[in-house]
Amino acid sequence: MSLEGKVAVVTGSAGGIGRACAIRLAQDGADVGLLDLKEAELAETKVLVEKEGRRCESIAVDLTDREETASAFARLREALGFLEILHNNAGGAAGSTTRTFPKADAAQWDAYLDLNLRVAADCSRLVLPEMIERQGGRIINTSSERAFLSAPGMTEYSAAKAGLLGFTKALALDVAKHGITVNAVCPGIIRTPLTDAMPKERIAKAIASVPAGRVGEPEDIAHAVSFLASPGASYVTGEHLLVAGGRTIH
Question: Which is the most buried residue in 68, 118, 147, 199, by most CB within 10 A?
Protein backbone atom coordinates (compact mmCIF):
# COMPACT_ATOMS: atom_id res chain seq x y z
CA MET A 1 0.00 0.00 0.00
CA SER A 2 1.19 3.49 -0.78
CA LEU A 3 3.08 5.54 1.79
CA GLU A 4 3.24 8.52 -0.54
CA GLY A 5 3.70 11.73 1.43
CA LYS A 6 4.82 9.91 4.59
CA VAL A 7 8.18 10.18 6.33
CA ALA A 8 9.71 7.11 7.97
CA VAL A 9 12.67 6.84 10.32
CA VAL A 10 14.61 3.58 10.49
CA THR A 11 17.14 3.14 13.28
CA GLY A 12 19.93 0.60 12.84
CA SER A 13 19.69 1.08 9.08
CA ALA A 14 23.35 0.74 8.03
CA GLY A 15 22.81 -2.80 6.75
CA GLY A 16 20.94 -6.06 7.09
CA ILE A 17 17.31 -5.85 8.19
CA GLY A 18 17.36 -2.09 8.71
CA ARG A 19 18.69 -1.41 5.22
CA ALA A 20 16.13 -3.73 3.61
CA CYS A 21 13.31 -2.06 5.54
CA ALA A 22 14.47 1.44 4.61
CA ILE A 23 14.58 0.50 0.93
CA ARG A 24 11.15 -1.14 1.09
CA LEU A 25 9.57 1.88 2.78
CA ALA A 26 11.07 4.07 0.05
CA GLN A 27 9.65 1.71 -2.59
CA ASP A 28 6.27 2.14 -0.92
CA GLY A 29 6.59 5.90 -1.39
CA ALA A 30 7.96 7.18 1.92
CA ASP A 31 10.82 9.59 2.39
CA VAL A 32 13.26 8.03 4.83
CA GLY A 33 15.50 9.15 7.67
CA LEU A 34 18.38 6.81 8.52
CA LEU A 35 20.09 6.54 11.90
CA ASP A 36 23.01 4.28 12.78
CA LEU A 37 26.48 4.40 14.27
CA LYS A 38 28.20 3.06 11.12
CA GLU A 39 28.69 6.14 8.96
CA ALA A 40 30.13 4.52 5.79
CA GLU A 41 27.52 1.77 5.62
CA LEU A 42 24.77 4.28 6.38
CA ALA A 43 25.89 6.33 3.38
CA GLU A 44 25.52 3.22 1.22
CA THR A 45 21.95 2.75 2.43
CA LYS A 46 21.21 6.40 1.63
CA VAL A 47 22.33 5.88 -1.97
CA LEU A 48 20.05 2.84 -2.31
CA VAL A 49 17.06 4.71 -0.85
CA GLU A 50 17.61 7.68 -3.13
CA LYS A 51 17.71 5.31 -6.14
CA GLU A 52 14.04 4.69 -5.36
CA GLY A 53 13.38 8.37 -6.04
CA ARG A 54 12.71 9.36 -2.44
CA ARG A 55 14.21 12.04 -0.22
CA CYS A 56 16.62 10.64 2.34
CA GLU A 57 18.57 12.05 5.27
CA SER A 58 21.19 9.95 7.03
CA ILE A 59 22.82 10.77 10.34
CA ALA A 60 25.56 8.78 12.05
CA VAL A 61 24.62 8.73 15.72
CA ASP A 62 25.20 6.75 18.90
CA LEU A 63 21.61 5.97 19.79
CA THR A 64 22.56 5.04 23.35
CA ASP A 65 23.50 8.71 23.86
CA ARG A 66 20.27 10.56 24.61
CA GLU A 67 21.57 14.02 23.68
CA GLU A 68 22.96 12.82 20.35
CA THR A 69 19.73 11.01 19.61
CA ALA A 70 17.51 14.00 20.39
CA SER A 71 19.67 16.19 18.15
CA ALA A 72 19.50 13.65 15.32
CA PHE A 73 15.70 13.47 15.45
CA ALA A 74 15.47 17.26 15.43
CA ARG A 75 17.66 17.33 12.31
CA LEU A 76 15.51 14.71 10.60
CA ARG A 77 12.35 16.64 11.40
CA GLU A 78 13.87 19.83 9.99
CA ALA A 79 15.04 18.09 6.81
CA LEU A 80 12.08 15.82 6.09
CA GLY A 81 9.07 17.08 8.03
CA PHE A 82 6.61 15.21 10.26
CA LEU A 83 8.11 11.85 11.29
CA GLU A 84 4.98 9.73 10.96
CA ILE A 85 6.56 6.25 10.90
CA LEU A 86 9.23 5.08 13.33
CA HIS A 87 10.87 1.70 12.89
CA ASN A 88 12.86 0.98 16.04
CA ASN A 89 15.23 -1.53 14.47
CA ALA A 90 18.47 -0.72 16.30
CA GLY A 91 19.57 -3.51 18.58
CA GLY A 92 21.44 -6.77 18.58
CA ALA A 93 24.26 -8.26 20.55
CA ALA A 94 25.94 -5.62 22.68
CA GLY A 95 28.71 -8.04 23.64
CA SER A 96 29.45 -11.74 23.83
CA THR A 97 26.46 -14.06 23.56
CA THR A 98 28.42 -17.07 24.74
CA ARG A 99 28.60 -16.23 28.45
CA THR A 100 25.77 -17.64 30.53
CA PHE A 101 24.12 -15.30 33.00
CA PRO A 102 26.16 -16.39 36.07
CA LYS A 103 29.37 -15.57 34.18
CA ALA A 104 28.25 -12.26 32.67
CA ASP A 105 28.80 -9.04 34.57
CA ALA A 106 26.24 -6.32 35.24
CA ALA A 107 27.76 -4.08 32.57
CA GLN A 108 26.78 -6.59 29.88
CA TRP A 109 23.22 -6.68 31.22
CA ASP A 110 23.04 -2.87 31.10
CA ALA A 111 24.46 -2.74 27.58
CA TYR A 112 21.92 -5.21 26.20
CA LEU A 113 18.95 -3.48 27.83
CA ASP A 114 20.17 -0.06 26.69
CA LEU A 115 20.64 -1.08 23.06
CA ASN A 116 17.61 -3.33 22.66
CA LEU A 117 15.00 -1.71 24.91
CA ARG A 118 15.87 1.75 26.23
CA VAL A 119 16.86 3.09 22.80
CA ALA A 120 13.45 2.12 21.39
CA ALA A 121 11.71 3.88 24.27
CA ASP A 122 13.88 6.99 23.85
CA CYS A 123 13.23 7.20 20.10
CA SER A 124 9.51 6.67 20.59
CA ARG A 125 9.41 9.44 23.15
CA LEU A 126 10.95 11.82 20.61
CA VAL A 127 8.31 11.26 17.92
CA LEU A 128 5.18 10.82 20.03
CA PRO A 129 4.38 14.47 20.87
CA GLU A 130 3.90 15.38 17.22
CA MET A 131 2.13 12.10 16.44
CA ILE A 132 -0.32 12.86 19.24
CA GLU A 133 -0.77 16.44 18.07
CA ARG A 134 -1.49 15.24 14.52
CA GLN A 135 -3.54 12.26 15.72
CA GLY A 136 -1.74 9.56 13.80
CA GLY A 137 1.45 7.58 13.43
CA ARG A 138 3.09 4.18 13.31
CA ILE A 139 5.72 2.75 15.64
CA ILE A 140 7.20 -0.62 14.71
CA ASN A 141 9.69 -2.33 17.01
CA THR A 142 12.11 -5.08 16.03
CA SER A 143 11.99 -7.73 18.73
CA SER A 144 13.16 -11.31 18.08
CA GLU A 145 12.14 -14.94 18.13
CA ARG A 146 14.50 -15.05 21.12
CA ALA A 147 11.76 -13.41 23.16
CA PHE A 148 9.99 -16.76 22.84
CA LEU A 149 12.73 -19.29 22.11
CA SER A 150 15.93 -18.63 24.04
CA ALA A 151 19.25 -20.50 24.26
CA PRO A 152 22.21 -20.71 26.63
CA GLY A 153 24.16 -17.48 26.75
CA MET A 154 21.16 -15.42 25.55
CA THR A 155 19.71 -14.29 28.89
CA GLU A 156 20.31 -10.56 28.47
CA TYR A 157 19.24 -10.52 24.83
CA SER A 158 16.09 -12.58 25.41
CA ALA A 159 15.12 -10.45 28.41
CA ALA A 160 15.59 -7.24 26.46
CA LYS A 161 13.62 -8.45 23.44
CA ALA A 162 10.83 -9.80 25.64
CA GLY A 163 10.80 -6.45 27.44
CA LEU A 164 10.43 -4.74 24.07
CA LEU A 165 7.27 -6.77 23.46
CA GLY A 166 5.91 -5.62 26.83
CA PHE A 167 6.75 -2.04 25.91
CA THR A 168 5.00 -2.50 22.55
CA LYS A 169 1.76 -3.69 24.13
CA ALA A 170 1.72 -1.12 26.93
CA LEU A 171 2.53 1.81 24.65
CA ALA A 172 -0.12 0.67 22.18
CA LEU A 173 -2.74 1.04 24.92
CA ASP A 174 -1.45 4.48 25.91
CA VAL A 175 -1.66 5.97 22.42
CA ALA A 176 -4.44 4.05 20.61
CA LYS A 177 -6.95 6.86 21.16
CA HIS A 178 -4.65 9.18 19.19
CA GLY A 179 -4.74 7.07 16.04
CA ILE A 180 -1.23 5.75 16.65
CA THR A 181 -0.43 2.07 16.27
CA VAL A 182 2.46 0.28 17.98
CA ASN A 183 3.47 -3.20 16.84
CA ALA A 184 6.51 -5.46 16.72
CA VAL A 185 8.14 -7.78 14.23
CA CYS A 186 10.05 -10.76 15.61
CA PRO A 187 12.66 -12.05 13.16
CA GLY A 188 13.95 -15.58 13.27
CA ILE A 189 17.23 -16.63 11.66
CA ILE A 190 17.87 -14.00 9.00
CA ARG A 191 20.71 -13.81 6.49
CA THR A 192 22.98 -10.93 7.52
CA PRO A 193 26.76 -10.40 7.46
CA LEU A 194 26.79 -11.92 10.97
CA THR A 195 25.09 -15.15 9.88
CA ASP A 196 27.16 -15.28 6.68
CA ALA A 197 30.27 -15.37 8.86
CA MET A 198 29.02 -18.31 10.93
CA PRO A 199 30.54 -21.79 10.40
CA LYS A 200 28.70 -23.84 7.76
CA GLU A 201 27.95 -26.56 10.29
CA ARG A 202 26.22 -24.09 12.59
CA ILE A 203 24.15 -22.66 9.71
CA ALA A 204 23.14 -26.17 8.64
CA LYS A 205 22.03 -26.98 12.17
CA ALA A 206 20.02 -23.75 12.32
CA ILE A 207 18.31 -24.46 9.00
CA ALA A 208 17.41 -27.94 10.22
CA SER A 209 15.46 -26.32 13.07
CA VAL A 210 13.34 -24.19 10.71
CA PRO A 211 10.22 -25.89 9.33
CA ALA A 212 10.38 -23.67 6.23
CA GLY A 213 13.79 -25.19 5.52
CA ARG A 214 15.72 -22.00 4.91
CA VAL A 215 17.30 -18.97 6.48
CA GLY A 216 15.16 -15.87 6.12
CA GLU A 217 16.17 -12.87 4.06
CA PRO A 218 16.13 -9.26 5.31
CA GLU A 219 13.41 -8.61 2.75
CA ASP A 220 11.15 -11.07 4.60
CA ILE A 221 11.19 -8.68 7.54
CA ALA A 222 10.79 -5.67 5.27
CA HIS A 223 7.53 -7.09 3.90
CA ALA A 224 6.15 -7.34 7.45
CA VAL A 225 7.28 -3.83 8.36
CA SER A 226 5.76 -2.49 5.15
CA PHE A 227 2.38 -3.92 6.10
CA LEU A 228 2.49 -2.61 9.67
CA ALA A 229 3.44 0.86 8.38
CA SER A 230 0.64 0.89 5.81
CA PRO A 231 -2.88 2.34 5.99
CA GLY A 232 -4.13 -1.24 5.79
CA ALA A 233 -2.79 -1.93 9.28
CA SER A 234 -4.66 0.92 10.97
CA TYR A 235 -6.70 -1.55 13.05
CA VAL A 236 -3.67 -3.60 14.14
CA THR A 237 -1.98 -2.47 17.33
CA GLY A 238 -0.22 -3.99 20.32
CA GLU A 239 0.60 -7.08 18.27
CA HIS A 240 3.75 -8.98 17.38
CA LEU A 241 4.39 -10.73 14.09
CA LEU A 242 6.81 -13.65 14.14
CA VAL A 243 8.75 -13.93 10.88
CA ALA A 244 10.71 -17.07 11.67
CA GLY A 245 9.79 -19.77 9.18
CA GLY A 246 7.76 -21.62 11.78
CA ARG A 247 10.65 -22.17 14.17
CA THR A 248 8.65 -21.07 17.20
CA ILE A 249 5.67 -23.33 16.52
CA HIS A 250 5.14 -25.67 19.44
Answer: 147
